[in-house]
Structures are given as structure tokens and as C-alpha cells.
Amino acid sequence: MIDDDKKAAAVAAVAEVADGMLVGLGTGSTAAFAIRALGERVAAGLTVRAVVTSDASGTLARDVGIDVLDFADIAAVDLTIDGADEIDARCFAIKGAGGAMLREKIVAASSARMIVIADGSKQVDRIGAAKLPVEVLPFAITYVMRVLTELGAAPVMRDNYRTDQGNLVVDCHFATLEDPRATAALLAAIPGILGHGLFLDEVDAAYIATNGVVTRLERAGASA
Ligand SMILES: O=C[C@H](O)[C@H](O)[C@H](O)COP(=O)(O)O
Fold first, then answer.
1. pLDDT at residue 56, rounded to an integer
2. Helix, coil or strand: residue 72
3. Whom does it interact with, and what assembly results (predicted)?
4. Which residues are known binding-site members for substrate?
């Protein structure tokens, strides 16, 4: 079952959490397994503090007894655990199906180490098939849609959806993502785009579970 694999990957990643750490908690169904697993370790005596990447993850984390801090007060996180929509052998990921990619990227960037957790369906040779979510300031939406269309991104705005920050999300599908760094640079250069789901430098490692077997990917040069 996919849920069993999500849980197995989550439990493997949560085993990396050490006493006293400040932990970044991701968003989504797989991250929720990690939050619950961390809650169990806290109940068993582990002392950690956490920051969260969405209101939903904050609610869950508090519910399971994790001490949640306001990220606005935090400069550096020890370890972040988060899900992904696609992850490849380079530890490049696409994230944001749940709309949390802006906060997720900020928390990941602040983290000494970031681990992606996923079931095997998320593992790909090369990222690019998943929709690439882009967070857009509502003021800029019509202009941004025009530019994304001109770039061949086939943008589709999510209906009746706002992020936790009150912004819009546009799902893009580029015909090719052969050069993800070039695509990331293009998106970053468009005024009105506040963030996107390409994670090219943030992910240090991934735990991926398939049929109950957890494998670990480590980015070349990343420290465990
Ligand atoms: O915005 C959502 C996040 O990037 C999620 O971590 C990602 O979409 C994976 O979610 P799930 O574990 O539910 O597939």
C-alpha cells in the first residue's frame, strides 16, 4: 500500500532527528506521516522544537505534541523533512501539489539538511512530468499568465484556491524540462511570481519506499 510506503519513508527520515534539534516540518500526506512519527518520538521523550511549512502541518504538529515555533523568528533550521511530487537521482525535486512550495523552499533553504520522503511512485529518472506549481501575487495574475503562456508553460490557474499567504497558484507544464536551472531562472525573473516548486539545490537526501523497502538517495557531496 502506498500509505505504508509513505509511512516507512517518513519513519526512516524521522530516525535522523536528534535530541535538541530544530526541525522543519513539510506539508502533504507524506509529511503528515513524518509529523505523526516525530510526535511519537516526542511522546517517548525526545526534545525538539519545530517550524512548519503550512497552517495544516502546524495544526497537526501541535495536535501530536510538538513544540511549534514561529518561523519569522528563526534564522536556521537543523533538519527539514518534506514530501515531493517528483524526485530524481540528482535529488532534484518538483514540489507544491499542495500549494505549500513557497514556505517549503524558504524553510528548506534555511536548513542545514533537507530530506525528501516519498513512496516509489514519486521516483523518476528526470523530473519534468509533474505539473510545476508557481505562486503568484494576485495583483500580477493576468500579466504572469500572459508571460507563462508566451514561455510555453501551458499555465492553468487553480480554481478557488489561495495559499496560506493568500496568493494564487498556477500549474505549469513545460514541454521539456531538460534544463531545470534555466527554467528556474526564467521563473525567478518574472515580476509577480513569488516562488515555484523546482527544488534544485535544497534536497540533500531522500528516503523512498517501494513495497515496504526503503532506499536512501544522497546528493553527491551532501553530508549525512
Ligand atoms: O505543497 C505540497 C508539498 O510540496 C508536498 O510535499 C508535495 O505535494 C507532496 O505531497 P504528498 O506527500 O501529499 O504527495
1. 98
2. helix
3. Homodimer.
4. 27-30, 82-85, 95-98, 122
Phi, psi of 171 (to 5 degrees): -90, 130
pTM for the predicted model, two decimal places: 0.96
Which parts are annotated binding residues? Answer: 27-30, 82-85, 95-98, 122
Domain 132-196 class, CATH top level: alpha beta
Each residue of 112-133: b (16+ CB within 10 Å) or e? ebbbbbbbeebbbeebbebbbb
Place of cell 505549500: 100
Cβ–ligand 1 distance for 27 under 6 Å, the answer yes
Separation of alpha carbons 110 and 78, rounded Å: 8
For the chain, the domains span: 2-125+200-218, 132-196
- Whether 195 is in the pocket of ligand 1, judged by its Cβ within 6 Å, is no
Expressed in angstroms and rounded, the spacing between residue 9 Cα and the centre of ligand 1 is: 14
Fold adopted by 2-125+200-218: Rossmann fold (3.40.50)
Active site residue 104: yes
Tens of pLDDT, residues 42-51 = 999 999 999 9
Q: What is the pLDDT of residues 182-207, one digit of tens each?
A: 999 999 999 999 999 999 999 999 99
Quote ipTM for the complex: 0.98
Is the separation of the CB atoms in 158 and 170 below 8 Å? yes
